[in-house]
Amino acid sequence: MPGDLKSGRIVIVGASLAGLRAAEALREEGFTGSVTVVGDEPHAPYDRPPLSKQVLLGQATADTTGLPMRRDPEAEWRLGVRATGVDLLEKRVRLDDGESLPYDRVLIATGTRARPWPDQREGALDGVFTLRTREDGAGLAERLAARPERVLVIGAGFTGSEIASACRELGIEVTVAERGPAPLVGALGGTLAKLAAVMQRNHGVDLRTGVTVTALNGDGSFTGAQLSDGSRVDADVCVVALGAIRNVEWLADSGLAAGPRGIACDAGCRAFNMYGIVTDDVFVAGDVSRFPHPLFGYQMLSLEHWGNAVEQAEVAAHNMVNPGPLQRPHLSIPTFWSTQFGLNIKSVGVPTYSDHVVIAQGSLEARRLAMVYGYQGRVTAAVTVDMAKSLDYYRHLIETAAPFPPPPGAQDRAIAADVTIPSAVPDPSVLSHGPTVALTGYLPDRRLTVV
C-alpha cells in the first residue's frame, strides 16, 4: 500500500554528504519511521572539497568542515561502525560490532576512498599521505605549515593538481609526476590539458609527464622517489593522488551488481542484483553508484561530484517513500568545478563522452575560454576557464541534444565555431589518476554463474 512507504525502518549505510542529504530528504518527504545512519568514520558528515583547498592553505581547519544540517533528520547515528554485509533475503545490514540492523528499505551511500600507494611498506613511510579524510587533511596541512623543502605529488588529476596549486601558493617547491601526457587529461581531454600543463609550469611546478614513480625511498621517513625515466626526486613530503576506490568490498557476497566501478542501479536509484534484475528495497546514491543516462547513450555513469551526491540522494529518498508512478528519475547533468593556479575551471556534461571539441568563446592564449565537446554530431559537454557565466547556455545545449559544432548564439554568448579538433580523450589505463566522470559501458563486472 502506498501509505506504508511513509513508515517502517530505513537504514542508510554511509554517513556521507549523500547519506545526510538523503536522511533530511526522507523527513521532507513525510517519512515518519525510523532512520538509522551507519558510518565507518567517527565524525558526523563533513565536506571533503575544502580539504584540498582551504584546509591546506591554512584558511580553515579540518575539524571545521562539518556539513550544515538543513533540518534535523531525527536519525539514529551509528558512527565509527563499519557495515560488513547486507542480507537481501533477511533484510538486514550486518555491522562489524556483531550487530545486524533490520530494514524495510536500505540506501547504500558508501562513497569512495583514496587509492593507496601499492607498496604497503613504502606507503607507511612518515611523510607519505593520501587526501580523502579529515585526518588526512589535518595531517597534510600540518606538514605543509612546517615548510618542507619539496613536496612530491603523484598523479595530476583534480585532487593532485589542487594540492600542487596549494603548495605553490604557500611558496613550497613541488614536483608533480603523471603517467599521462598532461595534467587533467583524463577528465578534460588533450587540448585543455595542454593549458593545464602550461599553467602549472608557469607557476613554478616541476611537472614530469609520461613517467611513473617506481619506488618511494626512505628508512622510516620519506626522503624521495625513483621515477621510471631513471631520475630521482628528493622531497620531504609525498602525496599519493592516484584517484579513488569505490567502497563496495563489503557487498561481495550480497548478490548485488557491485564491482570496482560501483553499484549498478536504474535511473530511479534502485540497485540491480547481479543478474540485472532491479531490487525494490535497495537504493544507491553518490560516488558509489553507476546509473544509466539517456543523454549519454544510456551508458552507465560513475560520478565523483559533490552536486551529484546531493541530487541523487534526494531522488533516492523520494523514490524510497513514494509508489512507482510517483517515482522520478535521476537525470541531472554532471557539473563540477576546480580552482587551481589562479584559474576557475567549471565543467558541465561528460567531457570524456566526446570525439571532437571546439573553442566557442575566448582562446587558450587568453586563458579565458569556453570549450564545447561533441559526440557524433551533438553537444555532450562544455568546460569554461574563468568564464563560468556562459555555462548555463551550454547546459541548455546539452539538455536539448543540440547539434555539434554549436550554432552561433546571442552576441554575448557563443560565436560560430567552425574549427573542430579531436577531443583526444585518452584510454584511462594510461593515466595515473582516474577520470572523475567515467562511462562504464555495458561490461559486467564479473561473470555470472549460470542459474
TrEMBL record:
InterPro entries: FAD-oxidoreductase/Apoptosis, FAD/NAD-bd_sf, FAD/NAD-binding_dom, FAD/NAD-linked_Rdtase_dimer_sf, Reductase_C
Cofactors (names): FAD
Entry keyword annotation includes Calcium: no
Keyword NADP: no
Domain Reductase C-terminal: 336-406
Record-annotated FAD/NAD(P)-binding domain positions: 9-313
Signal peptide limits: none
UniProt keyword terms in alphabetical order: FAD, Flavoprotein, Oxidoreductase
One Pfam family it belongs to: Pyr_redox_2
Protein name: FAD-dependent oxidoreductase
The organism's taxonomic lineage, starting at the top: Bacteria, Bacillati, Actinomycetota, Actinomycetes, Kitasatosporales
